[in-house]
Specification:
single chain; 2 strands
């Protein structure tokens, strides 16, 4: 079978030697990821936010539930963005009524970022029904099935994280093969 036919058969880039059930699982995982991505886009659109805004707001809500104070630098580190970008992000969230700035409770020189009550309610209203459906599905699994799913998802996560490491290794090999005269 030629490569284009393999891709057409599987809908993915896995070789024909993989069993149909393996390809089906990977295609279903891809379908789940596409559905989740579409759901996130709808959520962002309904709240008037971009992906980074939503990530920051979810972080703030999670930290608030855990009883932790969030400083702008904490948001910058979590998102891996500059402090200038963080200031712009917080300004945008504040203008949208999603967060407010407050004085740090113990350090007068520092400020903290607090999610608004309405944002917490909006996120819960937007995502609550979906989260309940997902929890119901997981609750219907036996302990053994949950263990299998957990192991599978942990393995898939590790595969992706390892691919990132391999990408860096490949860039290093290419750079090393070019050698010191590559710039000449």
């Amino acid at each position: 079978m030629s490569e284009p036919q393999e891709y057409a058969r599987s809908g993915y880039w896995y070789p024909d030697s993989e069993s149909a059930s393996t390809v089906d699982v990977l295609n279903m995982l891809r379908r789940y990821r596409a559905a989740e991505t579409a759901m996130r886009a709808r959520t962002r659109a309904s709240m008037g936010m971009n992906e980074t805004d939503l990530m920051a707001l979810r972080f703030l809500l999670r930290e608030q539930r855990a009883g932790r104070i969030v400083r702008p630098i904490d948001i910058a580190r979590m998102l891996d963005i500059s402090t200038a970008s963080t200031t712009t992000l917080i300004d945008r969230l504040e203008k949208g009524g999603h967060v407010r700035r407050e004085a740090h409770p113990t350090d007068r020189r520092a400020g903290v970022v607090v999610p608004s009550v309405s944002s917490d309610e909006e996120v819960r209203a937007t995502l609550g029904a979906m989260h309940r459906r997902m929890l119901t599905l997981v609750d219907e699994l036996s302990d053994q099935e949950r263990a299998v799913v957990t192991r599978f998802l942990a393995g898939m996560t590790a595969s992706i994280e390892e691919a990132s490491d391999l990408d860096q290794e490949l860039r290093n090999v290419i750079r090393d093969e070019k050698g010191p005269h590559a710039a000449e």
